[in-house]
Amino acid sequence: MGRAVSVAACALNQWALDFEGNLERIFRSIDIAKSQGARYRLGPELEICGYGCSDHYYESDTLLHSFQVLAKLLESPATQNIICDVGMPVLHRNVRYNCRVIFLNKKILLIRPKISLANAGNYRELRWFTPWNKARHVEEYFLPRIIQEVTGQETVPFGDAVLATKDTCLGAEICEELWAPNSPHIEMGLDGVEIFTNSSGSHHVLRKAHTRVDLVNSATAKNGGIYILANQKGCDGDRLYYDGCAMISMNGETVAQGSQFSLDDVEVLVATLDLEDVRSYRAEISSRNLAASKVNPYPRIKVNFALSCSDDVAVPTCMPIQWRHHSPEEEISLGPACWLWDYLRRSKQAGFLLPLSGGIDSSATACIVYSMCHQVCLAVKNGNADVLADARKIVNDETYVPEDPREFCKRIFTTCYMASENSSQDTCNRAKLLAEQIGSYHINLNIDAAVKAIVGIFSMVTGRTPRFSVFGGSSRENLALQNVQARIRMVLAYLFAQLTLWTRGMPGGLLVLGSANVDESLRGYLTKYDCSSADINPIGGISKTDLKNFIQYCIENFQLTALGSIMSAPPTAELEPLVDGQVAQTDEADMGMTYAELSIYGKLRKIAKAGPYSMFCKLISMWKEICTPREVASKVKHFFRMYSINRHKMTTLTPSYHAENYSPDDNRFDLRPFLYNTTWSWQFRCIDKQVNAL
């Protein structure tokens, strides 16, 4: 009959500019797809060079090496008798495009450039690429000689076309095009395309996965058809974690689901589906058929190949499944853990060092490392040879097998409690107990001697000795003395990261982990160049509220009972003198706002695009039961003053895992000035006028 088609969607852990590794992973995915009977293989967006090349896309080397990899793929026997769809940048008539290159048996069938480019949030595709604006138009692309020598072709079709095989018709979308209001799959489906493909470079954001799944399923719910989505996975060199979730959908229902978080570098999803199910589904949608009769047809590239076998009556086909979504707490446990593993193995370091204060933020960071150790041991238990090889390199032991997360944690994770005269015994005990329960190599040290030495130098030079405010000092003295402690901790963290393993007779150095959350960064409640200054920060894009829920998740799922007392303790920096041996300083009192309020300010500022006046207008309604308009005005003004005074700190913020859409990351995601007129005179006057009117 020729109706049961077998197709494959891949999630690959590609790495920007790692052409050799990327090629090897592409080959592995093709081998797996063929071994499972697939006749069409779809890979992630820009998989040959890796999605995150950024300004390296400007370099001719990136184009050259991409074509060299393509030549290797074309000439290999491994790519025979399967349609391969790979992603790479292509220069056409001196314009750079983000393209799919689709080939079969050493012949390029079509180069399909991206039509809608992603250019919001973390995406900057318009900086490097130009969208293809010629709908349903195909031009000749003159192949470079390195490809001509393999294919025997001088030119190939380049543009917006679809593939017509012996048994069906396929049309390509690329990532953002699925999210666009005028997605190509709408018109392609009306023109008889039965299989839609989407190669993505879509990164993880908390609570985002369901949106992607809903878009894929809705793409075929109204129009019928088969939708195949491939996505990159892992950390390919920056703050983003691409979260896989390869999937295959038919007629509005998911039939195959890939993992969102895993340490597998190559994941291939294969499904066998009945084309007649698509045709019968479409047959009864009269509105669709009326629209189809008037559609402007796509150019069709004829392909002498079938995705089905002629005798396939007895071939079993896939049935719909229920998609399982992770809870936000599971996402925090798994996403940053996988990102840390990629960063650790690819940076070729020997582990992590974390200043562990006994508070929620550093404890959450420690739990994420512990979760990473769990994932490594589980992957090795399941036979992942890549993870085992990486673990052996990291611990410098060719015979090592990670089986117990606590034992592995002891080898690769060092925690350090840096006490001062302002530290309480409670936080010291909490840090020590948590370190024991996760298995980290724990160090206790005291920084008072270093603090006295630094302050002593200042006093010797100036003849003045600063005092804390509780001893009669000014607010400026008080803040300076807090900052000295915080910055000394940063210096010591790097010293111990470089030399701790040396003192233990072990090779290598450690990556320093930061643990400032997204809310504190937004408010600027951190010392510039303190322990928030580190190599990477797995929680820098996560709110305090979500971190508290994650801590509770760890208590229940990892049996880390030490976290109970950490949860119940009020957050404190412990930088001011104790009162009767007890902590007098608390974060929320210092900030002049609660963490819950900060999360709301952050979402309104970034996601709702609210300036001071608009934020005030929204909050007088949201908070009408708990605050007067004048109180709301005071809170909004205080937030914007503190935010603008401290915005300069975001320019040096440690690279953090991107998890929230209200992140204040100044590198790429949240572009703002860092020198403000902090009086906001015009804006605040508008608020005052409205308050008086109310």
UniProtKB/TrEMBL annotation:
Pathway this chain belongs to: Cofactor biosynthesis; NAD(+) biosynthesis; NAD(+) from deamido-NAD(+) (L-Gln route): step 1/1
Coiled-coil segments on the chain, per record: none
Gene Ontology CC terms: cytosol
Highest taxon of source: Eukaryota
GO molecular function, one term: ATP binding
Record flagged with keyword NAD: yes
Swiss-Prot/TrEMBL keywords: ATP-binding, Ligase, NAD, Nucleotide-binding
GO BP of this protein: 'de novo' NAD+ biosynthetic process from L-tryptophan
The protein's Enzyme Commission number: 6.3.5.1
Keyword Nucleotide-binding belongs to the record: yes
Signal peptide positions on this chain: none
Domain CN hydrolase: 5-275
Subunit record text: Homohexamer.
Protein family: In the C-terminal section; belongs to the NAD synthetase family.
UniProt name for this protein: Glutamine-dependent NAD(+) synthetase
Organism: Calonectris borealis
Chain's gene name: Nadsyn1
